[in-house]
Task: inverse folding
């Protein structure tokens, strides 16, 4: 895994199967170490800069937790309106400036392709925390780590992805990683929120079995994992269209009672109405365990890109 030293983390398709297995192993080792002590010292003296141009709770806080539990420090852009961005500074100039203060940058930005633009502008590693409707690779990595912890070896899996698959950067990244393990995929969505055709075509070229359907129960009955996503209000220019589609897919107690076996339920969060609170006590409800796993995976990534393999 030393080849990740100094590398950018931008896209779900940049990883090999061996990469994923090594990241899982590193995250697992870190998780075990944290059971013995509160923090490690692998990144003592290192600084992480978080540049978030879109709202975030889990991604931002987990990265900030990750660097501090590794012994490093964090600096943040803060509110965009209180930074030089409000004066018209370009993204390139912002990241060039911040790279003078930090050893690694994590960026979230509303424009697809922005993370690569940032990475091309600086010599330190840049990690994509979401670029518009493009990619969210670290979410995909914590998702695959969660699936591994919930279900064991990543073999012969069937995964249903449900909701806004058109705009969902988390699913765009995750399918790339799942395809490395020959996972069968159900894409469950309204017809106008289907997985982008360039993604489905690419998966089919790789020989991945895909079923596209509007029926969540069809996918759930065949699957080991239900990966729920919210219908993203902020991606709609016509709010009347959003109102028609919100609530298209809801997992509740009644839905679970119709399943013939336990399934693992994942969600990148935040949820709106697609998983009711009564589901939280279901043994397969893994979404808050998924949140915690994000810290271990992001600790592993930060250590790896900075060349400090535990």
Result:
């Amino acid at each position: 895994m030393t080849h990740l030293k100094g590398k950018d983390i931008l896209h779900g398709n940049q990883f090999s199967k061996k990469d994923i297995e090594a990241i899982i192993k590193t995250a697992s080792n870190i998780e075990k170490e944290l059971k013995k002590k509160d923090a490690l010292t692998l990144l003592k003296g290192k600084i992480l800069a978080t540049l978030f141009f879109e709202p975030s709770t889990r991604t931002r806080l987990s990265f900030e937790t990750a660097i501090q539990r590794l012994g490093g420090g964090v600096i943040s852009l803060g509110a965009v309106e209180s930074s030089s961005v409000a004066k018209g500074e370009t993204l390139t100039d912002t990241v060039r400036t911040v790279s003078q203060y930090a050893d690694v940058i994590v960026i979230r930005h509303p424009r697809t392709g922005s993370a690569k633009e940032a990475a091309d502008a600086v010599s330190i590693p840049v990690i994509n925390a979401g670029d518009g409707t493009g990619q969210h690779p670290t979410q995909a990595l914590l998702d695959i780590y969660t699936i591994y912890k919930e279900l064991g070896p990543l073999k012969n899996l069937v995964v249903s992805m449900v909701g806004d698959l058109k705009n969902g950067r988390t699913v765009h990244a995750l399918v790339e990683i799942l395809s490395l393990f020959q996972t069968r995929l159900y894409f469950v969505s309204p017809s106008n929120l289907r997985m982008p055709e360039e993604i489905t075509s690419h998966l089919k070229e790789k020989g991945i079995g895909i079923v596209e359907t509007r029926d969540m129960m069809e996918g759930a009955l065949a699957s080991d994992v239900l990966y729920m996503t919210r219908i993203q209000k902020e991606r709609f220019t016509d709010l009347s269209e959003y109102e028609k589609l919100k609530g298209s897919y809801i997992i509740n107690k009644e839905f679970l009672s119709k399943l013939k076996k336990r399934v693992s339920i994942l969600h990148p969060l935040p949820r709106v109405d697609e998983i009711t609170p009564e589901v939280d006590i279901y043994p397969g409800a893994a979404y808050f365990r998924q949140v915690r796993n994000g810290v271990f995976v992001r600790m592993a990534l930060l250590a790896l890109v900075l060349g400090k393999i535990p």
